[in-house]
Amino acid sequence: MQSLRSLPRAASAARAFSTTTPRHLAKMQLIGRLADQPELMPTSTGRELIRYSLGVSSTQRDENGNRATSWFKVASFVEGAQRDLLLSLPKGTQLYVEAEAKMDTYQAQDGTNRTSLNLLQRNFEALARPRRDTESSTTGAESDANAAEEPLSGVGQS
């Protein structure tokens, strides 16, 4: 095996991977169901923000046969046709979301310091809309997380 010192100078120069400055990256990819229809909200700067919550079910079941669900709050500044699509999606729609993740610390009203995970959507794809079965025996968030799927054809990536 050759050591790096014995390699010609040109070979070691080819090891440079990038000329751009390194950036910090915190990215999440989620597949889950909308807790409710996304909401359009104005910001203090005059821009409009879309907010929604996504429920992501665990693959493992507990001793009662139920899956745990983690809830994530997502914000989006998407515009144009993608904005209209996101705002039209009903509760229970299954989404694939790519988002930037950031941990923020703030002081709560009771004076304690709290930390929250903030997700800013970069891309999304609607995977399936829920099928509305009138004979469903489950209720609430569990029925949304376990709803039968109706695939979407050709519906949106941003």
The CATH superfamily title: Nucleic acid-binding proteins
Q: Name the poorly predicted regions.
A: 134-148
CATH architecture: Beta Barrel
| DSSP strand count | 7
The main pleated sheet reads as:
5 strands, mixed, barrel
CATH-defined topology: OB fold (Dihydrolipoamide Acetyltransferase, E2P)
Strand order of the largest sheet: 1-3-4-6-5
- Tally of distinct domains: 1
| Text of the CATH class | Mainly Beta
Gross morphology is globular
Range of strand content: 35-45%
Distance between the termini: 48 Å
Q: Any idea what the radius of gyration is?
A: 22 Å
Structural class: mainly beta
Order of helices and strands: HEEEEHEEHE
Count of helices?
3
Q: Helix share of residues?
A: 10-25%
Keywords, please?
single chain; 158 residues; mainly beta; OB fold (Dihydrolipoamide Acetyltransferase, E2P); five-stranded mixed beta barrel; NA-bd_OB-fold; SsDNA binding protein
Description of the structure:
By secondary structure, the chain is mostly beta strands. The protein has a single domain, classed as Beta Barrel (OB fold (Dihydrolipoamide Acetyltransferase, E2P)). The protein has helices spanning 9-13, 81-88, 140-145; strands at residues 27-34, 39-42, 48-61, 67-76, 94-107, 113-130, 149-151. It has a 5-stranded mixed beta barrel. Strand 3 and strand 4 (67-76) form a beta hairpin. It is globular. Mean pLDDT is 80; it is low at 134-148. Pfam families: SSB.
